[in-house]
Amino acid sequence: MATVDCRPLTMKLKNIINMKKVIRIFVFILLGIVVIGTFVYLYKKSRPEVKEYQIITPVVQTLSKKTIATGKIEPRNEVEIKPQISGIISEIYKEAGEVVREGDVIALIKVIPEMGTLNSAESRVNIAKIDFEQAKIDYDRANKLFEKKVLSAEEFEKERVAYNKMKEEYQNAVDNLEIIRDGIAKSSGGYSNTQIRATISGLILDVPVKIGNSVIQSNNFNDGTTICTIADMGDMIFKGSIDESEVGRIREGLPIVLTIGALQDMKFDAVLEYVSPKGVEESGAVMFEIKAAAKIPDSVMVRAGYSANAEIILMQRNNVLAIPEGVVEMVGDSAFVYQLDTTVTNEQKFNRVPVTIGMSDGLNIELVDGVEPNARLRGNLK
Fold first, then answer.
1. pTM of the model
2. What is the DSSP letter of 327?
3. 15-to-9, 23, 170 alpha-carbon distances in Å
4. Among 135, 133, 131, 159, which residue's Cα sits nearest to residue 145?
5. Would the pLDDT of 265 be above 80?
6. What is the DSSP string of 152-179?
7. How far apart are CA 382 and CA 375, in angstroms?
8. For residue 151, how many C-alpha atoms fall within 13 Å in the half-sphere facing its CB?
9. CB 362 within 8 A of CB 68
10. In terms of CB atoms within 10 Å, which end of the chain has fewer, N or C?
11. Is the pLDDT of residue 45 over 90?
12. Domain 53-63+318-381: top CATH class
């Protein structure tokens, strides 16, 4: 009878048993890790969360409270040059952008007299000439008689006065005719009304007329035609408006910082010099006009009419101890900060400290009293 070898089967069974032991050990280890991890998680979860804050130290700085006004940059002295006589522009000697001095001729007007007025003036001259010639004859005769002592001094004086009166009337008639016809009387020795001259020194901003245009003289009943506009560009002002809610907080003399739209990289100092006593309604809001003297260097070219914003400094405190507003805790009218307790080293601990605060610029607030300048205060969470 043959013998069966069971050793391979026995080995196979041992391998299976060993494999099961390994799997069982692996499962136990995995369960142990899960249990330990769960306990660690629950332990950490049960502990209070440690919060870490930024540390803020007071800083010496300048605080300013501001408001913004919108407007334009304009010359303080801007003059419209108008003719003193009506006529037609015959010559223009200057253009916009040129610099002129007081008295420079800008344009020339050709006088076109009204025929009825011209005829009346010529008739007045003729009549006055006849009267003057007759008065001269009478005066010469009276003078001879007076020298011969035939005529009394009283009668001679009457003839002399009458002669001077007729002479003056004749000269006035001639001057009137020359003014109507030529724009100037020769006897005046002054500038011709037909020459339009600059009344101030400055820059010509605009010449709205052309050669051949009719112009009308300025008088009590007519504004007249503007020949040109001249401005002193060395004396500029900011002209703008401010809302009624803020006008009560400003006053003449306050410092201003100007930002000009065309020169955004530059800022200019100014001083508020005028606040209108009367408001004007604009788009449902009541606005008050303000003016400020602008301090613009000669090296900077600023054109009339540039739009600008004015930062009006309502209040300013220099070299004060300040901290961010968020560091301060307000409880009613009382203010508190949280100061770091330096005796505790393993964690951040803060003590609540009452403080006295002052002016705020919207971001930072003045720290008047309560903590030392080197105090370490609680800020925002990291």
1. 0.56
2. G
3. 10, 12, 153
4. 159
5. yes
6. -HHHHHHHHHHHHHHHHHHHHHHHHHHH
7. 19
8. 18
9. no
10. N
11. no
12. mainly beta
Token code pair at residue 245: 């809610």
The SS3 assignment for 377 reads strand
The CA radius of gyration of the chain, in Å to the nearest whole number, is 49
Helix, strand, coil abundance in the chain, percent, nearest 5: 30, 40, 30
pLDDT band at 120 (very low <50, low <70, confident <90, very high): confident
Closest CA to 278 of 241, 314, 313: 241
Taking the CB of residue 83, how many other CB atoms lie within 10 A of it? 23
Position 270 scores a pLDDT of: 93
Is 37's pLDDT higher than 60?
yes
> Does the domain made of 83-230 have the CATH classification 2.40.50.100?
yes
- Amino acid occupying residue 201: S
Structure tokens at 122: 């010529």
Distances in Å between the Cα of 179 and the Cα atoms of 84, 211, 223, 295 are 11, 22, 21, 46
pLDDT band for position 1 (50/70/90)? very low
**Domains of the chain by residue range:** 53-63+318-381, 67-76+232-317, 83-230
Distance CA 349, CA 51 (A): 10
Q: pLDDT band for position 11 (50/70/90)?
A: low
- Digit-coded pLDDT (tens) for 75-103: 999 999 998 888 889 899 999 989 999 99
Query: What is the per-residue pLDDT across 233-248, written as a single tens digit (0 to 9) for each?
Result: 889 999 999 988 888 8
Q: Which tokens go with 313? A: 């400094």
The 3-state secondary structure of 45-78, one letter per residue: HHCCCCCCEEEECCEEEEEEEEEEEEEEEEECCE
CA triple 193-227-239, angle to 5 deg: 130
Q: Any idea which fold 67-76+232-317 has?
A: Elongation Factor Tu (Ef-tu); domain 3 (2.40.30)
